[in-house]
Write a structure and sequence with these properties.
Elements (H helix, E strand, L loop, with lengths): L8 H19 L5 H26 L8 H35 L2 H13 L4
Organism: Rickenella mellea
Protein name: Mediator of RNA polymerase II transcription subunit 9
Length: about 120
């Protein structure tokens, strides 16, 4: 897993905490001390979970970019990916046409002579 991955465990307990807050508010009498304490503890746990989740989400790389800027970066990366795929396809076609037209020995000779020739 990447070191930049969002730890989902921080988000797993949020629904449970919210459900607990709702359960306490619906099943208890607001006048009792125990009910108020249970509600306070439940809401505190939920607020702490929300704060931690927000901090983690804010700290994600790229989070400082606007959505429009993120979309531009994504488009640039997709274009780069597509160019690399095209280059690989062209190289593959070139290698196939070269290998069908020449013997392996001729190809090795051509590669060797190219590698040993000086560049100007």
């Amino acid at each position: 897993m990447s070191s930049n991955a969002l730890p989902t465990a921080a988000f797993d307990g949020l629904i449970e905490n919210l459900a607990h807050v709702l359960e306490v508010t619906q099943n208890s009498q607001p006048q009792s001390h125990e009910a108020r304490l249970a509600l306070f503890l439940a809401t505190t746990a939920f607020k702490d979970g929300i704060t931690q989740a927000k901090d983690l989400a804010t700290a994600l790389p790229g989070g400082e970019l606007l959505i429009e800027e993120q979309n531009q970066v994504i488009a640039m990366l997709e274009e780069l990916r597509d160019r690399k795929r095209q280059q690989l396809a062209e190289l593959s076609m070139c290698a196939l046409s070269t290998s069908s037209g020449q013997s392996t020995q001729d190809m090795k000779m051509e590669i060797d002579s190219t590698a040993s020739s000086p560049h100007d």
